[in-house]
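Case 372 in the screening queue. Each case pairs one protein sequence with one candidate compound; here the compound is NAP. For every case the pipeline is the same: read the inputs, emit a complex structure as tokens, and attach any notable structural observations.

Predict complex for case 372.
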Amino acid sequence: MPRDAAAVTIRARGPRVSRAPLRVALLGAGTVGREVARALIERGPELLASDGAPLQLAGIAVRDLDRARAAGLPGDLLTDGPAHLVASPDTDVVVELLGGDEPAHTLIAAALSAGKAVVTANKHVIAHHGAELEAIARRTGAALRFEAAVGGGIPVLGPLATDLAANRVTAVRGIVNGTTNYILTAMTEEGRPYASVLADAQAAGYAEADPTGDVEGHDAVNKLVILARLAFGAWLDPTDVATLAADGPGRGSRGITGIDPEDIARARSRNAVIKLLAEATRSDGSHPADIAASVLPREVPADSPFGRTSGVLNRIEIEAVPVGTVAFSGPGAGGPATSSAVLGDLVAVARELGSTWAGLPPATTSAAVGSR
Ligand SMILES: NC(=O)c1ccc[n+]([C@@H]2O[C@H](COP(=O)([O-])OP(=O)(O)OC[C@H]3O[C@@H](n4cnc5c(N)ncnc54)[C@H](OP(=O)(O)O)[C@@H]3O)[C@@H](O)[C@H]2O)c1
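Case 372 output:
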């Protein structure tokens, strides 16, 4: 192409002004949803990208209207009918922050099927229904963005799909669950047994009343499945991720449930600490069968970057060719930090940047492997 023509093309892509606002339907106003609502209401103009549409909060779906009003959310935006809000012709983009499988899965699928962009932090839905949702998004051309589903406020999926797109990723590993890392850190520093630290973590709000999803590793499995999609181009089946420790710390148990003070002491005698590590490596191809994935308690050197990742912090390392090893660390949970990723995705939708997988090719699935 002649140089002059390229220059003209670039100038023609200058800032677009006076675009119609993008009407945002927010599903859920809990820990994360509340922060997103507050930011859209209080800092909407700050979130306006020079080359994107303004964002306008058009509705908020909650279960308990009175409680939401009492929490200061504007009454005229509230509804207890999330399906109606998704289907409304006045909704352009859906932000799903309900959590859990249903109705979140059906609502996301409905929005994408109607050609509406979706932003979600729901790692369970993306890990368990990612292949189906990716297929719908690609068919309708609607964007599906889920940066907040892994690492809370840490940007890691976007960099994998964009800045690192020229690399061949060979491994992803990380401390991706703040609750278990908080418990392991307290067990290590205070020399207390698992059950007692878990009870304190629940009282302090760092662990849920039913901690199974965190302590048995399911939450970390979901995040690893999502990381593997971006890193290797394959949707793993969450049940294919190994979570039962055959040997080493916590042997015979899932997640951190079998870690005892003896495991911690044994690690300490080797200048090591125990961390719940999510790890996926790949051999040659980009099919689920070429990927080995696990979420297991591992000894790591106490003075290593993983060893020094304490409390509720997360750390994710990517090994890739030609870049080498790159690392991402920071706040992996919490309303304000997670809202950062959700709002970043909303701005990306307003700028028409597409889905989290950006220009990566469609992913393979376990089913595709079976038919190879
Ligand atoms: N919290 C974090 O640090 C964090 C970090 C990363 C990702 N995430 C993800 O972000 C999502 C939201 O998490 P969260 O911590 O904000 O959860 P949360 O505090 O439990 O909030 C969920 C909200 O959705 C509402 N809700 C649930 N089901 C509903 C339904 N069927 N209809 C209407 N409203 C419904 C709940 O209402 P009620 O209160 O009335 O039940 C609540 O307001 C989850 O997918 C989570 O995995 C959270």
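Case 372 observations:
- The two ends are 41 Å apart (CA to CA).
- Residues 28-33, 61-64, 82, 97-99, 103, 121-123, 148, 152, 333-334, 338 surround NAP (CB under 6 Å).
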